[in-house]
Specification:
Two copies of one chain form a homodimer.
Chain A lengths: L5 E5 L4 E3 L6 H8 L17 E5 L1 E3 L4 E3 L9 H10 L6 E2 L9 E4 L9 E2 L9 E2 L4 E7 L11 H13 L5 E2 L1 H13 L3 E7 L8 E7 L7 E7 L3 E8 L5 E8 L9 H10 L3 H24 L6 E8 L1 H8 L19 E4 L12 E4 L9 H10 L8 E5 L4 E7 L2 E7 L20 E7 L6 E5 L11 H4 L7 E2 L1 H13 L12 H4 L4 E4 L2 E8 L7 E5 H25 L6 E5 H6 L2 H7 L10 E5 L1 H11 L1 H13 L1 E2 L6 H10 L10 H6 L17 H9 L1
Parallel strand pairs in A: 1-7, 11-13, 14-17, 17-19, 20-29, 22-31, 23-25, 29-30
Antiparallel strand pairs in A: 1-2, 3-6, 3-7, 4-5, 8-9, 10-12, 12-13, 14-15, 15-16, 18-19, 20-21, 21-22, 23-24, 26-27, 27-28
């Protein structure tokens, strides 16, 4: 045995001695080296490409001669002629071991390859999809040994792929016999590998060797929008992304109005279930069209959503979620058939819903936890996913806590007089000169600031239509910094501020950000009710975070991750000026983008991650804000916009918050700002 | 410990010592005694009734005093007042052990009770149904420990019933929350206990304690008729039985014409699939109505059928079954959801199809094997299920062989000039006086023979409409015994036989069994083509049996079991006169009735029997008659009707077969009888 050539695989470092003539693929399999193959070494799929290294490898104690592998053969040449093969590459099933050799397995030949995420701080996704392709050769029927075609296919999968107990649904039995004969008893099958409670299952069958791939969907089902990524289950690549408005919006803008709709209207929950499923199917058609693929090739889908959307999507009346004790019908992850949810993708497609954390902290928060992995963090991280509800996670590898806070839709531009969704024409960035009190701003769709040359031309097609969520945060924070707003949230009058842009509006004042009325456009102002709405929202967000910090027993966190589309566009400084997030060094505030969607994508591409997040969720300490007296307390204290007296020492080193107070003549006594003002006054 | 009272359970003989005050139910559970309980010992269900025995039991070494159990209590009294309780019975959950005691568990308190089959020789069915009821008390939701209602129900099932990993479909989640609250967190659930590849699953949920039961269907899906038994899954009792004609008959009387229909008509297989499923649903509605139960309480169904029906029912094109090598799409047993087959029973109902033995020997034959258990037989048994195809099993506990023989529909009264299905008005029994050659007969619907007083009145409503399968066998055998028919199958003329009932018909003769034409009724004759049809059918049947006997290397069998409705009505003597079955002592020929249906019922009531038959089928040696030259040989030799020269020694001791030969002037040269005649002549 010790005379047999030594084979060392990189990057794994796995090594062993094999008889001369052993194919590299065989050696890799025996050593457990991650080298892909769909055809099982028949020289058909060419997934097992490897690169032999030549020369002296002191690390491995090997000198590799040029004739370490068998000669380049006709199968390899045919593949190279037909499809191309990078110089130096060989097919692992064709190249045989002749002498000691070091073999590199390039990433694209690995089954469990890493999918690179764009953000530097994010961990990579290891490919381990639910469904894989296998090429098999099936025995022909024999009258003397009668057995079904299916049984012989199952045997072939056992013999050729060591896949045991493979099952199938009826739809495969319907096509099995003609497909086997068309492929002359050679077929490619897509197999869902199953899980603890489901056996491996044949999803699809193609005659002969199937060159293509199968797809999965990672879906972020939000109250307002439904966003989906279509992923290649072989490479992990996102081949298309698309989104639509949640059609349930017509039943209520926010979650609680949808719950009310279900309570007030018999069958209302079913109406909403139908609406969201129809929307989902429209989205899937759209995304498949965009990627030019057959929807029937979508064999897996992962969904993340908040508990109310979760229940409505599943067809469960969300009644119980509208009242204490906010009991979920089910909180565990769910593995379902797509047809049960009336989704028109592959007829046997499976669907996975991440677990819910609690009655107010859904599978979307679980997905954020999967993407941002606070449970693996060395330092104490606050993860905030801002939407109509804010889901808040706080923790590190010792412990993770979670809660939800009812921020309402103000951060999404709703309930704001000139508010709108983040779409071309919306003001998204604002600066106000502290001396002149004059604003400059940028509009979605243009890179040019409003006081720069070419601005008018750059917005010619979109116009200026309103302010989006991040814009309203910035303008309010800038107003505070410019002394146009006091800590209680009152806008000063033109007299008090010395700015003609401060105009009376009802019994209070408004700040005129843009007047497009001369050209028939809108007058865009920030009113005192706008500020009150944002104060309410940010107070809810801040109070949730503070509550978790109390539970952990800290006053500061090491870092803050802002998740969600809103979190991606928000300026950390302005968020802190507003008091949305706890004090924290600015460079420690990062955006995770659509972390819920990323979590869905991780769970789609790596089934191990599903088990991981189920475990994580079980261990998370759930905090219910609705029954925590401290939450109410924090909320009342948090509605003001910080001033120098507030406990934001880091913020105070960054900005100067003017000590102004606008004791308006009228109104506003009902607002939280007003309430606080009176308490302090 | 040895001071603790001794408890002996009968009939199991299990015994153990338990502390004073231990409830009998608890003791039974700890000893693994089969004592039923749905409520888990809460005094609600009263399924745990036991009978304490008093006196001296030398066998058990115990003397039982009258105070061996705790006193009769209020719970027992309430139950007795409300529902009645047999004297001497106690509730096992209420009666506590005080002193040494012998406890009898009556059959109705056993979970795995035996269901008695009517036939003495048949083994009993042990109850072990797929689905059982469990009463549980579920924890209320707690905001501080958020978990879904489903998760708390699953926990309760684990804690209170040791049922682990229970899953559910969406339909339970849709109703879970209101049902839990309606039952004040006490519910009864029906749980399908799963199998090797399916976890236990909640099928149904009722608020509080559910007094009722759930049902299952045992369905025998034949080419001609579909018959179903509705069974109580608790008691095993058949609560209703019903049947309909297979609606596929309009696409072809026999299996091969249906396969042809599918081949000749695009989508023809799907048409037939729809037809049989619609028929099935109509039958289920009918049977549920008859039993006055809600169809949604039918949670399990077992189907047996031949391979073509199997494929058409599953929606698989039977194309491959119409040609060698007769490859089944799948031969294994199938565990499916009823909705996959578009069956309108319980939405989560499961369906089990027995395995097929071979391309021509279906799940119906497997069911016969389960019912008649040749694999457990000490002596060599031939089991024949006569239908359009005859399925034949031969074997004993050493080995079982199986084949199928294409008998055609003649035995069912089809292809017979006066033939009809077995229905009121059909002649079913015939005797012919060997001297006068005059017949007497009996008609379905009447117990009176045609030559007895009151016959005319007894058939006043039905009339005499034709001959059914068993009638045609008897009349032909009787014709042979009376010398009206020669061994080749030719009917003699009036001159040759001396009977005016032998009338010319075409180029041959016919025997006039009944002339009702004077009253506007039919003239019922047995023609030579009728005899040819029966000769073909019986030759096929006999040849199949002979072929298996050749394989085993025997010339006789120890016993013959005739299965199927036809087998139930056929006279063993007449069958042997015709040469349908091999020579065998008459008292060793028994009828098993609808053995396929019984096999379906066994598989329905005892899930262990499913595993058992799967194993049996794997071990059966399959013989394909179509490719066995010996089959053709036997067939040619078997078309004649035995005469004294044939190797039927036992038959020859019973009857005298007249040595007649009617060499007709014309025709009939094409018939098998004719062929044989020429070969011998």
């Amino acid at each position: 045995m010790s005379d047999d050539p030594l084979v060392v695989f990189t990057p794994s470092g796995k090594r062993g001695r094999f008889p001369v003539g052993t194919p590299v693929l065989t050696a890799a399999r025996q050593l457990g080296v991650d080298l892909d193959s769909v055809c099982g070494g028949r020289g058909i799929c060419s997934k097992c490409q490897i690169t032999p290294s030549y020369g002296e490898f002191s690390k491995h104690g090997v000198t590799v001669e040029a004739d370490a592998l068998s000669e380049w053969n006709a199968v390899e040449q045919r593949y190279k002629d037909k499809r191309g093969l990078i110089d130096g590459r060989r097919l692992g099933c064709q190249a045989k071991i002749e002498r000691d050799v070091v073999i590199d397995v390039p990433p694209e030949s690995q089954v469990h390859k890493q999918v690179v995420r764009k953000r530097a701080e994010a961990r990579e996704i290891t490919m381990n999809p639910s469904t894989r392709l296998y090429y098999v050769e099936v025995e022909k029927p024999d009258m003397h040994k009668p057995s079904g075609d299916m049984e012989r296919l199952v045997e072939a999968l056992e013999d050729q792929w060591q896949l045991n107990g493979v099952k199938t649904d009826l739809h495969i039995l319907h096509q099995l016999q003609p497909v086997l004969r068309k492929g002359d008893w050679k077929v490619t099958v897509a197999i869902h590998l199953g899980d603890d409670t489901h056996p491996p299952k044949i999803m699809h069958i193609w005659p002969g060797y199937y060159e293509g791939t199968v797809y999965g969907l990672a879906v972020d089902l939000g109250s307002t929008t439904i966003a989906a990524h279509l992923c290649d289950l072989k490479t992990g690549e996102v081949v298309a992304s698309s989104g639509i408005m949640n059609p349930q919006i017509r039943f209520g803008e926010d979650l609680m109005s949808r719950v009310s709709y279900a309570m007030m209207n018999k069958g209302g929950d079913q109406e909403m279930t139908r609406a969201v499923r129809e929307g989902m199917n429209a989205l899937f058609t759209q995304i498949a069209t965009e990627a030019s693929i057959d929807k029937a090739l979508i064999v897996d889908a992962v969904f993340v959503c908040n508990p109310v959307m979760h229940h409505l999507f599943l067809g469960i009346d969300p009644f119980e979620l509208g009242q204490a004790p906010f009991a979920l019908a089910t909180s565990r992850s769910l593995s379902l058939r797509a047809v049960e949810l009336e989704l028109n993708i592959h007829p046997a497609a499976r669907v996975y819903l991440l677990p819910c954390i609690a009655g107010h902290v859904g599978a979307d928060a679980a997905a954020v936890a999967l993407s941002e992995a606070p449970d693996k963090s060395e330092d104490l991280v606050l993860v905030v996913d801002v939407g109509t509800n804010a889901e808040i996670l706080l923790g590190n590898k010792e412990k993770v806590l979670a809660c939800s806070s009812p921020t309402g839709p103000a951060f999404e531009g709703a309930q704001i007089s000139s508010g709108q969704r983040a779409a071309p024409g919306a003001i998204e960035r604002v600066e106000i000169d502290p001396v002149t009190k004059e604003p400059r701003f940028r509009v979605i769709g243009s890179e040019i600031w409003s006081d720069e040359d070419g601005f008018a031309e750059s917005i010619a097609t979109t116009g200026i239509t309103g302010i989006c969520g991040s814009g309203i945060i910035e303008v309010i924070a800038e107003m505070r910094l410019a002394g146009l707003l006091d800590a209680s949230g009152l806008i000063g009058s033109a007299e008090q501020t010395g700015s003609a842009r401060c105009v009376p509006e009802g019994r209070t004042n408004a700040y005129l950000l843009w007047d497009g009325s001369a050209e028939g456009g809108p007058r865009i102002t920030v009113t005192n009710p706008d500020i009150r709405a944002i104060q309410m929202a940010k107070a809810a967000l801040y109070s949730g975070a503070r509550l978790l910090m109390d539970k952990v027993g800290v006053d500061t966190v090491d870092r803050v991750v802002l998740a969600g589309a809103f979190g991606a566009h928000i300026s950390a400084k302005h968020a802190m000026v507003l008091g949305m997030i706890p004090d924290c060094p600015l460079e420690k505030v990062t955006s995770a983008g659509n972390a819920a969607g990323t979590g869905a994508r991780i769970a789609l591409l790596n089934t191990d991650a599903r088990k991981e997040i189920e475990e994580t969720v079980r261990n998370i300490e759930k905090v219910e804000t609705a029954v925590e007296p401290r939450f109410q307390e924090h909320f009342v204290n948090a509605s003001a916009i910080p001033n120098s007296a507030d406990p934001f020492p880091i913020l105070n080193t960054l900005v100067t918050l003017p000590e102004v107070s606008f004791n308006a003549g009228g109104g506003d006594g009902d607002g939280p700002g007003g309430r606080r003002r009176r308490r302090r006054g």
